[in-house]
Amino acid sequence: MRHVIILYCTTDGQTLRICEYLQGVVEQSDKRVTVLPIELADGRDLTVFDTIVIGASIRYGKHSKLVYDFIHRHAMLLDSKPNAFSVSMWWPESRAKTRPPPTLT
Ligand SMILES: Cc1cc2nc3c(=O)[nH]c(=O)nc-3n(C[C@H](O)[C@H](O)[C@H](O)COP(=O)(O)O)c2cc1C
After folding, report:
1. Which of 9, 19, 22, 25 could form a disulfide with 55 if both were Cys (CB 3.0 to 4.6 A apart)?
2. Closest CA relative to residue 66, chosen from 87, 90, 42, 83
3. What is the pLDDT of residues 42-64, one digit of tens each?
4. Is residue 90 part of a domain?
5. Index of the ligand 1 atom closest to the CA of residue 12
C-alpha cells in the first residue's frame, strides 16, 4: 500500500484541521496516511514515504521558519518524490463576495 506523509505547521490548529481532512480524502483512495507536525519530521525516516505533503499557514505574509528550514534541508528528497504544498490562509468575507475561496476537492 502506498504511504503518504502530511507534515503540518500550525499556530492555532486550522492547518491541522485541513490536513486531517486531506488525510480522510486520501485514505479513501486506499493509501495509508501519516499526519505529523513538521518539527517532528527529522526524527523519522522520510525515505519510506511515497509522497510528501506539507501544509503550512501564513502569518504576516510568511510561513514559519520551521517550514523554510525543513524544505531547504530536504530539497533533494522532496524533489525525488511526488510532493505537494498546501497553504492555509485567510479568506475574508469581503473577498469571498467577488472571489470564491479555493476548495479542497
Ligand atoms: C497574526 C496573524 C497574521 C496572519 N497573516 C496572514 C497573512 O499574511 N496572509 C494570509 O493570507 N493570512 C494570514 N493570516 C490568516 C491565517 O493564515 C489563517 O487564519 C490560517 O488558517 C491560520 O492557520 P493556523 O491556525 O494553522 O496557524 C494571519 C492570521 C493571524 C492570526
Report:
1. 19
2. 42
3. 999 999 999 999 999 999 889 99
4. yes
5. 25
Ligand 1 midpoint to CA 98 (Å): 20
For residue 18, the ligand 1 atom closest to its alpha carbon is 26
Q: Which domain holds residue 71?
A: 3-96
Q: What is the pTM (predicted TM-score) of this model?
A: 0.88
Q: Is 19 in the pocket of ligand 1 (CB under 6 A)?
A: no
Look up the CATH number of the domain holding residue 84. 3.40.50.360
- 50 Cα–ligand 1 center, Å: 30
Give per-residue pLDDT as tens, 27-43. 999 999 999 999 999 99
Q: What is the pLDDT of residues 60-83, one digit of tens each?
A: 889 999 999 999 999 999 999 998
